[in-house]
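Summary for the steering committee. The consortium agreed at its last meeting that each partner would contribute one worked example illustrating the joint modelling workflow. Our contribution is presented below. We chose a case with several input lines so that the handling of multiple components could be demonstrated. No manual editing was applied between input and output; the record is shown as generated.
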Amino acid sequence: MLDFPRWRVWMLNTIIVVGVLFAIPSVLPTHIRAQLAPYVPTPTINLGLDLAGGSHILLEADTSQLAETRLEALEDSVRTAMRRANPRIAITDVSRINGQLSFSVTEPSQVDAAREALLPITSNATGGRDWNIGVNDGNRMILTPAGAGNETALDQAMDTAKDVIDRRINALGTLEPTIIRQGENRIVVQVPGLDDPEALKALIGKTAKLEFKLVDEQADPDQTAQGKARVGSQVLPYPDNPTGLPYIAVRRLGGIAGDKLVKADPTFDQQTNEPAVTIQFDSEGGQKFARMTQQNVNKLFAIVLDGQVISAPQIREPIFGGVSQISGSFTTESANALSISLRSGALPVDLKIVEERSVGPDLGADSIRRGVLAAIIGTTAILVLMFLAYGRFGMYANIALVINVSMILGVMAFANATLTLPGIAGFVLTIGAAVDANVLINERIREELKRGRRVVQAIEFGYKEASRAIFDANSTNVIAAVLLFIFGSGPIRGFAVVLMIGIVTSVFTAVTITRMWVSRWVKRTRPQDLTI
Amino acid sequence: MKLLKLVPDDTNIDFLKWRTYAFGISLLLMIASVGLVATKGLNFGVDFIGGQMIRATFTQTTEAPVTELREKVASLGYGDPTIQRFGKENQVSIRMKLPEGADKNPEIANAMAVKITNSLKADYPGVRIDGVDSVSGKVSEELFSKGILALLAAMAGVSIYIWFRFEWQFGVGAIWSLLHDVTLTFGLFALTGWEFDLNIIAALLTIIGYSLNDTVVVYDRIRENLMKFRKMEMASLLNLSVNETLSRTVMTSVSISLPLIVLVLFGPDVIFGFSVAMAFGIVVGTYSSIYQAAPILIWLKVGSHSFVPTEEAGSKAERTEGFGAQP
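What follows is the complete predicted structure of the assembly.
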């Protein structure tokens, strides 16, 4: 046990040196680190939001709404497919209930043709089925979601949503956001150093689904005021309606979606000089827009954003270039925000903020200062206590402890781990617990000496017998730390990470490293008696 | 050099003599803790009940105007706030329940936070908003159930580990002493009304890990002595084991408590509850490994026969027969 071959000594020393080296960049002042950065790698520990200040926002997708959107899209493609079938297939009684789409084929003899036409739009790219096709009462076709259709759709929608949010936040400038998906329908957005998250929230919370719909000019204003619309129309809120009525009736069909944009920029309306947004469609969207405006000259069309009409101008002439201007009651900021949202695309799902935490930079700085102070005082107290209690062996434990502290920092920097406020507490706690191994060993050596063993034997026994308890004790700690990591969130995970790293490095330094030093000392001096 | 000894050599304290009293007192304290939690309840933070917490520092005064603040926030029409000082006299946390309908429409919650912070800034020019936490009912329910699940899993996990490494009686002893530590910590928070949030769950999990640390050391020595002194009466054997490990127990408890006490006194205010919970748990954990985890082994009839291969069990059991009969 006390035999340490040269290669092992070298290996252990190398591990120590590497571990400590990795810790250095994290403790250097920022400006020195910045000067060094071009020449040597400077891995550093990230500070969590609770220390650095910043915002943490948890968004959750409305899954029911997504299923509804899918169903709407299916209805659209079914209608198109039936219309384009040759001969055309007439359908009636289209309904979307309980996540199913059902309709009746007017001519029962066309049911087989209808099924044939449905096949391509109900299967997915890999050949699997997205929707199952069933027939009731001879001519009623029922489409139900098949297999993982909704899950896959959600998964894709969440991926898209993540990209959209990423683009929107990047448009704000120099922030360094972390955007990750969590679970099946959540996205975590973390933005360090952001003091006031209002602007951010306004930006990422907006779905930004833009639509152009024809206004139902035959609608009875009294009916509209009550929220009732004619067949084929719907009533939408219109807060800035010049007529004073905060609602307007629009035609359900014949509109186009504004999701095919290549450009969206804030601008000023040339007539009113008020903030506005210019948009430019891609070629396909541009053609549709041209067709719509061509067919409806002199009619009113509503510009609908997230289900709310922002303005309803008259189409004075067909618009061919695919460029249009959206005006409403914008401020410069809201015009800017809308153009960012439109540019980055609409969110495929509505996202709600279900959790939000923001920490000001001053509180974080205070926490760091006092956490570090506590760590320094705590460590010093332990160093003194260990030296007083165990003399030379206490010194070994102390040096091991200092190395341990550096190695925890080093490993965290290497793994790019995040230090949180509970993490600092974990750090302080680890310092206290790390010497436990040395206490166990040293107490055991004391005991063995009292029992009359010779020094070398006592040391050997001390390490051997204590190792078992050390192993068991640390294993239980690892179990607790792993569970903390699995069940914890944000800052707590940071705490668990520090604990886990600390357990591993402390066993390494407190047992392996001190044993190496002790064995070298024993070999060199051949001590006959030992004060411990 | 004369070395410091926190515990004199060769102590022979009859710890186990008081085991019945200690057990009785512990049981009473546990019942009291459960009673306190049931009647007085825990002061749950927004993590667990949802709602909003705004932390603010009044930089221009030495003392935050808590009473005035309470009236002002209440007059905004979102219900009565819970306002507490934390850390310095001029730092407060303002907790609000989420307004109705906030789960459907987060804008409402948002509007509330903006309105409160704006009114603070308008009324007190020197106020600094240090942070806003807003947790929806759904997320808080999840955090709560996940926290409880983590606690249970940790207790079960480490006990199973002990069972595998030792014997089932040791596993029972471990889970009992953990239950003891965790229950008393819950009781402390119910008694003091300190805010119970996610951090406290983390503290409890750490207590579970480190309280077991102690238990393991004592158990390890009991196992060793059981194999060494096959004829010793169980109570004396436990006493011997506890005494032999006493100087280590004290030394480690002191060395872990030192930084924790420093953390309570000088550490960041935001994690005050967390630090206190941990310091309290370490003390209770040390006590429980001596007075809960060890005596349970007597009641569960652990003897030297527990650690011999089964085929020899018959002959060993004969030799150990006498132990059980003694009190």
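Residues 262 and 282 of chain A are 6 Å apart (CA to CA). The longest strand of chain A covers residues 351-359.
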